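P.,

For your records, the input lines for the assembly:
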Amino acid sequence: GAGVSQSPSNKVTEKGKDVELRCDPISGHTALYWYRQSLGQGLEFLIYFQGNSAPDKSGLPSDRFSAERTGGSVSTLTIQRTQQEDSAVYLCASTPVAGGELFFGEGSRLTVL
Amino acid sequence: KNQVEQSPQSLIILEGKNCTLQCNYTVSPFSNLRWYKQDTGRGPVSLTIMTFSENTKSNGRYTATLDADTKQSSLHITASQLSDSASYICVVSRYTGTASKLTFGTGTRLQVTL
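Structure tokens returned:
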């Protein structure tokens, strides 16, 4: 596609359930980021994938959070045993080169009841 | 500590007026500074990217300035339009030698009214 695609756009789940959020980056972009944006807050870095290098997971808030990027393209962010504080917008961004301009998706809004 | 501070937190201006948003940073070593516009419920969209050697950069009615000595940047919006209502986010990039790290400001929320 022409831009970064994220799905679902909205997800409502019950506390304790697992959720998967998907990001389809722009074709050919080697780097992919996941961010979390809580209401009225700035973007919080979660994880970064660059080519075949080991991902930078330093931003993941707990071991309930994990992400993978298969074949250097699509990425999935998984949150296990969701908590209410996980409610936020999860944004994915890709860039053609490390340090380059970021292209963001529209985000996945997660609400944990 | 690597930080990006933006001011004001929020701003209301009349359509047609100009405004200036500020960004101060302590990120080091500096690689580049970016301004993004984020409409409500949407992902951020890049406005400008400036490297160390660039003092000013324009994108239509948006003009960003950078003073790398004082570690300050500003985003000037000329002849504001209702569609300029959004959050404006300042992001500073540093290169650690192995990876590019981004530090985000919390944004300035701009509302343009009639």
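Two observations worth noting. The first strand of chain B starts at residue 4 and ends at 7. The mean pLDDT of chain B is 94.

Regards
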